[in-house]
Amino acid sequence: MLMALTIPSLCWGFGPPAKTALVVTETGSGFQTDINAVVSFLSGRLTTAGYTVTSNVGVPGSLSGYNEIWDIRADTALSGSDITAYVAYMAGGGSLFAMGENGTCCSARDASVAALITAAGGGTVTLETNSANLQTVQAPFTGPVSLTTITYADIGGFTSAGSGAFITKDTATSGGALIFGPGTMTNATSGVLASVLDVNFMDNNPPGSGLSQALTDNLIAYLGAPTVIPNSPLATPGPPTALLVAIGMGGAWLVAARRRPEIKRS
Fold first, then answer.
1. Quick one: angle between helices 213-224 and 32-48, nearest 10?
2. What are 18-53's pLDDT values in tens digits?
3. Are 130 and 103 in contact (CB under 8 A)?
């Protein structure tokens, strides 16, 4: 009986569903050579991670069926319809990466990423033209490939994270990359959104100019199996333990008081 059940399942290809990823790209960019290099590099890393990769110029009509979407455009600002489609995708549990760049070249793109964050319910983020290129990587993006610091080529910056958290930081309140994990976006509570304001960390043209295969691989891994980010404001679970203990003790005192027998006086 076991063989009868097992052999057909192998023949018919039963098993875990294939992982799929969409890479959204652009044409006519002021640095199209770099964009093309990013598409090639990222597609290779996704394929290595077990994904079937589709690339498309612009946001396609349907986003259903994709486990991860990587919008790596930098010159092209997200349109209103792009934002609407992406919020709906994340509300359905999708994982999205939205590329940005430094504010000198690409402030319109960065502003549209900030608008996407707000539309998804991730609060208000503020932008700066540049943050420091040398940044400290925050958990959980320190793995599975070991990574503690990264030197970007020319990164933009966020000076506030809304309801998200920093992926990399150059100071206590500033950094070039943000993550919005599960439960941090009120209009897409099941979804995930990551953004890095620098195309060069996935640009292998020329090699070594800010390229980070480790951060790319760690982002792919996280978007594929997202977890709650502990220091995200909306993801903080429940009241503090001390408060729960105090509430419990108060409840126990009230129960004991109600059960105390009345003293009769003669």
1. 60
2. 899 999 999 999 889 999 999 999 999 999 999 999
3. yes
This model's pTM is above 0.70: yes
- 104 Cβ partners below 8 Å, 6+ apart? 129, 130
**C-alpha dihedral, 223 to 109 to 131 to 133, nearest 10°:** 70
Task: Establish how many alpha carbons lie within 13 A of residue 220's alpha carbon, considering only the half-sphere containing its beta carbon.
Answer: 25
Type of residue found at 26: E
Digit-coded pLDDT (tens) for 75-89 = 999 999 999 999 999
Tokens encoding 128: 């700066």
Give the per-residue pLDDT at 210: 82
- Amino acid 98 reads A
Fold (topology level) of 2-235: Rossmann fold (3.40.50)
Retrieve residue 110's tokens. 């960065």
Give the domain ranges of the chain. 2-235
